[in-house]
Every structure is written in C-alpha cells, then in structure tokens.
Predict the structure.
Amino acid sequence: MAALIEEGDILARGDVRGLLVVENDAFVFCDWPRFEARYRCVLVLDEGEDAFLTLVLATAFPRLVPLWKVEVLGERRLGIVLRALARLAGCATVSVGVRS
C-alpha cells in the first residue's frame, strides 16, 4: 500500500480504488486478492502502470515476475518499487533517489 500511496497517480484513479477498496457498514479495507485476480481484466492500464502494479503486487504475493517489467517503469516508479522491496527485506534505511 505504501508504494501505491507514494506513486499517487494509480491510486488516484477511481476505477483502481473501486476495485481495491471495499466498504461496508463495519469496515473499510483493501481486498488485495480480489484486486490481484481482476486488475488486468477490469482496468485499462498502460505498459508502465501494468508493470508497476505487477511488481508491487509481487511484494504482497510472492511469485515469479519477469524482470523485464522494470524497463518500462521509469526512474520515479523504479525508485518506489526498490524502496518497497527494501521495506519487504526489513531495511527501512535504504535511500533510492531519482536522478535529475
């Protein structure tokens, strides 16, 4: 979730929030399994958005992910994914900056 919040653009989309966030009388929560199962067939994503979501979801649901996906991320999204991986590894002190 931290990676989606940091990236900002994808989570700002109503269709993404509608697929990810579930609200009922008692709870508001992210339904990650439902999102992962349906995001490719429900959302219209460009190549970079698809790559970003694929890599971010791989941090929550470990699986084999083709590393060529990083080629289309761009520096900003790559930095976000690398920070998410560092957090997953238990290292909160890794600094991954974007060159200007």
Summary: The longest strand covers residues 21-23. The radius of gyration is 14 Å. The beta strands are 21-23, 28-30. Residues 22 and 29 are 5 Å apart (CA to CA).
